[in-house]
Design brief:
Elements (H helix, E strand, L loop, with lengths): L1 H18 L31 H43 L7 E4 L5 E4 L4 E5 L4 E9 L4 E6 L7 E8 L2 E8 L2 E9 L4
Antiparallel strand pairs: 1-2, 1-8, 2-3, 3-4, 4-5, 5-6, 6-7, 7-8
Length: 185
């Protein structure tokens, strides 16, 4: 009886297997299954370059260095330009014309420099207008009177706080005129 039972059991199992076949966890569809290798299982080898690749890398490094040099040159030029602009602004704010103002020589003779290249010599009986130019390197001022009665002249000048000295020479004789700056009203 046990043989009959075994046959029936085999028959039932066969029917169950036909109706519900076992499934594999992942169908491979004919492709080989790739196995993962553990990370860092093999030492990392540096890439081997051919001579043309080495040349390409050398050119790339050179190009990068040149770009960096250009970048720093542009930055340096911008800094220099900015410094020049700042210096010019401060120089312009400093007044520019060191002679600008009214200068009294002896209570009767007054020189008035407007600061724009124009001025006047004021005497009790007359006023003589003039144009002037300053050469700061040579420390000279050239005065060109509009009236021909007054003599045009180029003086050496020296300014210290509220004192102005105009000096020069005619032939063998030297002269110097000292002026005091008057307060603006």
């Amino acid at each position: 009886m046990s043989d009959n039972m075994d046959k029936e059991l085999d028959e039932i199992m066969g029917l169950i297997n036909r109706e519900h076949p076992q499934r594999s966890p992942r169908p491979t569809q004919g492709k080989p299954v790739a196995r993962r290798t553990p990370r860092y299982s093999q030492p990392i080898q540096p890439p081997r370059y051919t001579s043309s690749e080495n040349e390409r890398l050398r050119r790339r490094s050179k190009r990068i260095r040149q770009q960096q040099i250009r970048k720093w040159a542009i930055i340096g030029g911008a800094v220099v330009l900015l410094l020049l602009i700042i210096i010019l602004i401060f120089k312009g704010c400093a007044g520019g014309d060191v002679l600008k103002g009214t200068w009294d020589m002896d209570g009767t003779t007054v020189y008035q420099f407007e600061g724009n290249g124009e001025g006047a010599m004021i005497l009790p009986s007359n006023t003589y207008t003039f144009k002037y130019t300053i050469n700061e390197e040579e420390k000279t001022v050239s005065i060109d009177f509009e009236d021909e009665k007054a003599n045009d002249y180029t003086y050496n000048y020296e300014v210290t706080k509220d004192k102005l000295i105009l000096s020069g020479s005619e032939g063998k004789e030297s002269f110097a005129y000292e002026f005091t700056k008057t307060k603006e009203k």
